[in-house]
Amino acid sequence: MSDPTESSDQTHAPHQRWFAELKRRKVFRVIAGYGAAAFVVLEAADVIFPAIPLPDWTISLVLYLLLGGFPIAIAVAWVFEVTPEGVRRTVAAAPGEIDSIVGAPVRTRWPAGVLALGGMALLAAAFFGGRRSTAGPSDEATSSEAAAGPAIAYLDLADDPRPAIAVLPFEDMSPDGDQEYFSDGISEEVRTVLSRVRDIRVAARQSAFAYRDRNLDVRQVAAELGVPYLLDGTVRKDGAQLRITAELISASDGFPVWSDTYDRQLENVFVIQTEIAEAIAEALRVSLGLSRDELVFPTLDMGAHDLYLTGRAAMSRRGAGVAEAIRLFEAAVARDSMWSPAWAGLAEANAIRPLYTGLGGESTDSLVWARSFEDAEDAARRALELDPRNASARVALGSVHAHRWEWADGERELLQALAIDPDNHEAHTQYAELLWGMGRLDESLRESGRALALDRTPIRLDIHGFNLYMNGRLDESEAMLEEGIAMDTAGDVHFLRGILANQMLLDGRYRQALDRFADYMPDREGFLMMGAALEARDTSLLPESAGRGFAQTLVLLGESERALDVLEDMVFAMPFRVPYDIWDPALAPIWDSPRFQNVILPRVRLEGAKARFASSGER
Are strands 256-265 and 241-250 parallel, antiparallel or unpaired? Predict the structure, then answer.
């Protein structure tokens, strides 16, 4: 005769017996406890990790470890049980035990299942909450800023509704008068702090610094800079003592709106910068709406701070200053590897370094470009780990992508930079270069014009002058380049001379160009031969090969196939660099040729691209 308890167990449905077994082995209890614990752990990590600070990926690591541990916890609960004697394998159910659990009143059977469902819900909440946390400010801030940032970035300055201020160079009042770089650095840091406030427009450093030694009426200075407010001040650095005076002046009447003096120990310079910025914003009746951590990213190492300031000054000169800036930024991050601005500066400098490796032209060694871009990427990624809202790091990445012909990736990074910092003149400059490389010349002209309005320096005059030429506005281009050359007394921005010389060559003034710019021409003899050939309309006078302007010269002389040979050799020999030359208006007669469309454009990943000009009537 069979055991009646066995027969009774078999009368219940399989799913009832399975759920009863889960309850007997306390799996429901483990699910509930694991979900609650995972939720608490991830919430704590979300608060603690950024404060230490740890990189964003550490939260992702915790998240996926918790998810991976969930099935392991269930398996362990199924196989083992905890008894007064310790942990042991779970024994089989006694006869009638499963039937007893299934047949128990509902009020005793369901609580375990409800707790398990609650644990699953908490685990799901932990997962989706963690995913949002690991997205970080670079995603969430960009999505919320995407509408406002570019809208401000592309407004004409005359239409920008924000109150505008120019930070003039603070005067060095140190006993030995040898701290100008430091007083300039304080001015620049205050300007940087203010530029992070979306509701204030800050005039570019170089534009304001042009007034260092000019004793002009403040109303005239403000009118020339197009701002209603000026911030002026002095810095006195004497050993460990630092005194900063700052004064906000209204251009309408020349009277101070606000002024203050800060006496501090030198190590508190970052606190001083924040105090000045907040006081100015209050005087302008602008609510910051930002925490202190969002305003400044301090380093406690004053040596690193000095190196960073000197590096920024060197990079703004371009030319040999770029290599110098890299050495200074490397020294800064060696002293403080947790300071995002120094890493971002290093990234920006490495991203443009190959363009300034030799007199009169960029490097032709693809390994130089590759190494420099790898260094730029590494530094930019580190900067973004420390500060996901660092616009300069995004600019560096956008520049690298553009030179690698990764157009969509480059545009995405640069638009993110502009969403974070609409007045970032370097972001506008690099975006202009990306756009003209793609043949979007009308958009590029807008970008370079905005960069120039924010920062009227030789490099911005160079980019905008070239862009005017590319859009067929030759007289304006030449005037812009001449202004840049007059400002670039050290000859650091050699592109200014090369671009203007090329324009003069194509305009029949090659002898004049040769007289002025011979020292900036890597191939003086080839330039002379091209000019002679254009002047005589005689192709036999052309050299076998030459540098900038050779393809354009060939087209002007009717040698279209040979010009295509030059362009094809250029893009296939050059795995890196924005293709500056292919959209030159002198090459317009060959743009529709099969070789241009089917060989040259695909090589630079621009299949089917067409040049777009600022005015459709130009072409």
Answer: antiparallel
Report which DSSP code applies to 357: S
> Could you tell me which residues are beta bridge partners of residue 263?
243
pLDDT above 60 for 532 = yes
> For residue 85, what is the DSSP state?
T
Task: Assess contact for 354 and 576: CB atoms under 8 A.
Answer: yes
Domains and CATH numbers, the chain: 4-140 (no CATH), 158-296 (3.40.50.10070), 298-422 (1.25.40.10), 424-493 (1.25.40.10)
Question: What does the alpha-carbon distance between residue 301 and residue 217 come to, in Å, rounded to a whole number?
Answer: 38
pTM: 0.64
Q: Could you tell me which of 364, 360, 348 has the C-alpha nearest to residue 491?
A: 360
**Which residues make beta-bridge pairs with 80?**
89
Q: Give the C-alpha separation, 285 to 279, whole Å.
A: 10
DSSP state of 232: E
Mean pLDDT of 17-33: 73
CA pseudo-torsion sign 208, 211, 212, 216: negative
Lowest model confidence (mean pLDDT) among 230-244, 350-364, 375-389, 422-436: 350-364
Match 């998240």 to its residue by tokens: 63
Under 8 Å between Cβ of 219 and 254: yes
Q: Which residues neighbour 565 within 8 Å (Cβ) at sequence distance 6 or greater?
A: none
Which has the higher per-residue pLDDT, 470 or 276?
A: 470
The 10s digit of each residue's pLDDT in 106-136 is: 566 566 666 667 667 766 666 555 544 444 4
Give 244's strand partners.
235, 262
Pairing mode, strands 171-172 and 241-250: unpaired
pLDDT at 170: 82
CB 352 within 8 A of CB 399: yes
The single residue listed with the structure tokens 């690193």 is 304
Q: Which residue has the tokens 């304006």?
A: 476
In this prediction, residue 616 carries a pLDDT of 41
Per-residue pLDDT band at 343 (split at 50, 70, 90): very high
Sequence-distant (≥ 6) Cβ neighbours of residue 443 within 8 angstroms:
435, 612
Higher pLDDT, 99 or 336: 336
- Asked if 526 contacts 543 with a C-beta cutoff of 8 angstroms, the reply is yes
CA quadruple 182, 188, 190, 192: dihedral positive or negative?
negative
- Tokens for 103, please give them: 């047949």
Q: How far apart are CA 43 and CA 35, in angstroms?
A: 12
What are phi and psi for residue 413, nearest 5 degrees?
-65, -40
Q: List all residues 6 or more positions away from 596 whose beta carbon is below 8 Å from its beta carbon.
A: 564, 567, 582, 590
